[in-house]
Amino acid sequence: MITEALSLVPKAEAKQSMKDFKSDQEVRWCPGCGDYAVLAAVQGFMPELGLARENITFVSGIGCSSRFPYYMNTYGMHSIHGRAPAIATGLATSRRDLSVWVVTGDGDALSIGGNHLIHALRRNVNLKILLFNNRIYGLTKGQYSPTSETGKITKSTPMGSLDTPFNPVSLALGAEASFVARTVDSDRKHLTSVLRAAAEHKGSALIEIYQNCNIFNDGAFEALKDKQRALEAVIRLEDGEPIRFGLPGEDGLGSQGVFRNQETGDVEVAEVTAENAGRVLVHHADSPSPTTAFALSRLADPDTLHHTPIGVLRSVRRPVYDDLMADQLEDAVARKGKGDLAALLQGNDTWTVAG
Amino acid sequence: MTSQVDQVDQSGQEPHHGGGGAEGKEVRRLDRVIIRFAGDSGDGMQLTGDRFTSETASFGNDLSTLPNFPAEIRAPAGTLPGVSSFQVHFADHDILTPGDAPNVLVAMNPAALKANIADVPRGAEIIVNTDEFGARAMAKVGYDSNPLEDGSLDGYSVHQVPLTTLTVEALKGFELSRKDAGRSKNMFALGLLSWMYHRPTEGTEAFLRTKFAGRPEIAEANITAFRAGWNFGETTEDFAVSYEVAPATSAFPAGTYRNISGNLALSYGLIAAAQQADLPLYLGSYPITPASDILHELSRHKNFGVRTFQAEDEIAGIGAALGAAFGGALGVTTTSGPGVALKAETIGLAVSLELPLLIVDIQRGGPSTGLPTKTEQADLLQAMYGRNGEAPVPVVAPATPADCFTAALDAAWIALTYRTPVFLLSDGYLANGSEPWRVPEPAELPDLRVRFATGPNHTLDDGTEVFWPYKRDPETLARPWAVPGTPGLEHRIGGIEKQDGTGNISYSPSNHEFMVRTRQAKIDGIEVPEVTVDDPGGEAKTLVLGWGSTYGPITAAVRRIRRSGGAVAQAHLRNLNPFPANLGEVLAGYERVLVPEMNLGQLASLLRARYLVDIVSITQVTGLPFKAERLANAILEAEGGPADDH
After folding, report:
1. 3-class DSSP assignment, residue A198
2. B189 shares its domain with B273
3. Contact across the interface for A80 and B440, Cβ inside 8 Å
4. Which terminus of chain A is less hemmed in, N or C, by CB atoms within 10 Å?
5. Mean pLDDT of chain B
6. Do B1 and B126 share a domain, yes or no?
7. Per-residue model confidence as pLDDT tens digits over B370-418
8. Considering only CA atoms, which of B36, B49, B56 is closest in space to residue B105?
């Protein structure tokens, strides 16, 4: 699978397997951690891209998920807290022959590194950002995070946290992201489909991955994982399809649908009937305006995660920063010729001292 | 002692008449002159000074400049905080500083006069724009009476010139409002000073035509004002004398010269370093005074393959530079003290990753926001120690504006050879000051090419060939630089302590001890040139040791002392980490070691700690460079000898 997004990255000579992407390092996450599932999904998906392994780089910040690069048999950098998008920006914009992936968490990306995340997204640097959201600080042993629900009781908030949480998808859409998706660690098939869509996208891609921390925030996404409850809680988005979910209705599709409120313009969930079935909102990830994607991202209840949309919320084409930067260099050479150091140093205003 | 009459005596030249463009008027020959242009921030004083400097450079004088301006872009008009000035010192011999005391002050308004008069010795010439000396303007800066009339300027040679009126009059043929025409008064003043000092004028006229290429009317108006100023000098009786300062032919080795500021020289040094290393240059930076000019300059040279990335903050600036370095670029970040504080954690990461990186710190007055447009050397300890853990970073400090070019190449050589972040410590004085520079041929520049790792570098016990990212070069202790895209060398690096050789995460006590000591040994082992001592008689008991931008003032002060029969030795440090290997021996060879610094004694502390020498600190934190005369006196006082009367 080679798309335009990866056209500058050299291809693998031989067929690859999942094993090729496993490093020799012992994986040191807690047993039962959701990170294992994501790692396996990524290692399993990589051969599909068919890229030269040496041209793939994973850059991470600090936190449990940020140990990820050590386990990938590619180039990798485990950097400092929050700064992975900035470091990856320097790498991606100077080396367009690389496929650059950022691995980060809710604390890393949205708290200490919030500034770098939003600016990488608005610039549309060619980075694939995997945001592992477990709604807790794991590596520092259980403080509330910027995605924790308000009132969260943790070691640092014995009387409950006071902050309103970020919705990472809403945040990314507000930051002009050209690709935003959400998936869940335990749904390997969905996770892989989202990774595929992100890899095919040219520019920044933000993938929020709901990831269970079985030590400090176990069951945080249970509402989305329990088969029965998930039917009502999860809204699966398919591009070009009416947005329906819930127990099957008479037509075999979900009995619940997302509709646009004609008065407010907002979107809302309602029972699908024979009369209104034609008015169910059809999902268009490539809609030029992010307005509807944003409205969809707000359907989720921040406390219960009821009505959480998953899938690709937005995927639009717009100029990629790395290309624009390279174009300017080419333009400058076309206009002024390749740099001549002697002429530069000499300048226009010299005088000569005779010996 | 710096009045012009004294200088004529010193030069041994008799005043003579005739010649130049001032037929019938007296022309005196001087060996050096210090002029200060001062006005409102909006009066164009920096431009005026720059142009006078360019004229002077192309004439072949040695020169040194000191721009001095407020941090506010347009401080309230006519106020003391809004005064902007530009001092230029030029001579027929080699000079080292912008000069202590102006021989000529151009004061465009009462605020400029009031803010600068204390620096101007009696006997000097003062040219004032009388149009601005209205009652309100004078009251605004606290003049109870008119200084032009109340005798307070007795002893000065005051030229009262209605600069605005004359400019407006000269431009009446142009369709400009009085206000717009008056804006060209700085060019009128420039024309007048150009006449007084026999400066060539073609350069300024060409400059104005280029600058206002899109508005020929404005270009012509400025040129007309410039010429009117020149003609005014030639015809009015108020200016009876003009001055010649001969080119400084003997001061310079043969070669092609240009005038250059520190920030421009540093920018060129970075471009040259990348070319010599055959690596793309990647600048990650966030705007900050007084470093932004480097970002501006580098962004103009994309045809050299230079990528400039204006980041969202200081941390992202260095982060991007480090990311590019991981990818095989010459990564650079430019900033000033507050930005260094923000970058500290990433510098520590670069120490741990052992990747080449240049951190350019154009120091300014601190702490905190401090004095954004003024100079200081108070980031030395921050550069040395401002990180968590044992995180040694080499430090290189240029001595003069032109030396910023060479210092950038030196810093790049260290970074690339030893795979380490390197601090380049310039400051506001070097950044904005300028001096003549002999333009080097690219062939003279050092070869900075590096070898990326291309294959395995280690054989395991079982015979397997592997790549170890932390297996070091036995001589330099540098680790291999294996860039992404190299097959077979896939590896992971990070800020967590790593095992020697393999680079795998390791928390082993003995490995950590080994790695900390090895990183330190790598920096300690960097080859830096020995420090040389200037001690002409060989009898000096006192050594004056400086670093960075104090080179000019210290050298000028030492020359003064020697001229009056004193014996002092002088040495200057360009490498502050590691110190030159012979430094301890040099320090031990003198009874007294004096260290002048624009801080409260940071180098002195380092030297005391390292060499157990009882250093005498001479410090100044005014936001301005040392003045040679005061520094000479401070050296004599510290020596215990008699101080000059002053």
Report:
1. helix
2. no
3. no
4. C
5. 94
6. yes
7. 999 999 999 999 999 999 999 999 999 999 999 999 999 999 999 999 9
8. B36
Residues within 8 A of B (CB atoms), A 111-170 only: 115-116, 119
Residues of A in contact with B494 (CB under 8 A): 69-70, 76-79
Lowest mean pLDDT among A182-186, B296-300, B637-641: B637-641
Segments of chain A with pLDDT less than 70? 1-3, 355
Look at residue B5 and tell me whether its pLDDT is greater than 50: no
The total number of structural domains in chain B stands at: 4
| Beta-carbon separation of B442 and A342 below 8 A | yes
Per-residue DSSP letters for B481-523? ---TT-TT---EEESS-B-TBT--B---HHHHHHHHHHHHHHH
A147 touches A133 (CB < 8 A): yes
The enclosing domain of B295 has a CATH number of 3.40.50.970
Output the pLDDT for position B316: 98
Q: Which residue of B has its CA nearest to A78?
A: B494
Find the mean pLDDT for residues B134-140: 95
**Whether residues B234 and B319 fall in one domain:** no
Question: What residues pair up with A268 in beta bridges, in sequence order?
Answer: A259
- Computed over every residue of chain A, the mean pLDDT equals 96
Specify if B563 maps to a domain: yes
* Partner-chain contact A10 B485, CB within 8 Å: yes
Domains of chain A: 4-236+305-330 (3.40.50.970)
Q: Which two tokens stand for residue A239?
A: 């591009």
CATH classification of the domain holding B614: 3.40.50.920
How confident is the model over B455-468, as a mean pLDDT? 97
Return the pLDDT at A2.
Answer: 53
CB-nearest to A353 from B255, B324, B329 is B255
In this structure, the answer to whether residues B383 and B276 fall within a common structural domain is yes
Token pair 């390092």 in the structure block, residue: A25
pLDDT tier, B23 (very low <50, low <70, confident <90, very high otherwise): low
Q: Which two three-digit tokens encode residue B77?
A: 């008009």
Structural domain span for residue B152: 1-17+26-161
Q: Which backbone phi and psi does B465 adopt, to 5 degrees?
A: -85, 125
Residues B227 and B354 in one domain: no
Task: Specify the pLDDT at position A3.
Answer: 67
* Residue B412 to chain A, least CA–CA distance (Å): 17
Q: Give the one of B256, B331, B346 whose C-beta lies nearest to A80's C-beta.
A: B346
pLDDT exceeds cutoff 80 at B2: no
Whether chain B has a CB inside 8 Å of the CB on A87: the answer is yes
Give the pLDDT of residue B146. Answer: 96
B44: pLDDT strictly greater than 70: yes
Instruction: Tell me: pLDDT of B22 over 80.
Output: no
Residue whose pair of structure tokens reads 């930076």 in the numeric block: B285
> Can you give the pLDDT at residue B615?
97
Its pTM stands at 0.93
Residues B142 and B264 in one domain: no
**Do B361 and B223 belong together in one domain?**
no
**B439 found inside a domain:** yes
CATH number of the CATH domain containing B146: 3.40.920.10
| CB under 8 A, 24+ apart: contacts of A164-170 | A164/A302, A165/A135, A165/A302, A166/A106, A166/A110, A167/A297, A167/A298, A167/A300, A167/A302, A168/A106, A168/A109, A168/A110, A168/A131, A168/A133, A168/A206, A168/A208, A169/A206, A169/A208, A169/A297, A169/A309, A169/A313, A170/A294, A170/A297, A170/A298
Preferred mutation among B276, B297, B303, B460 to probe A, highest tally of A CBs within 10 A: B303
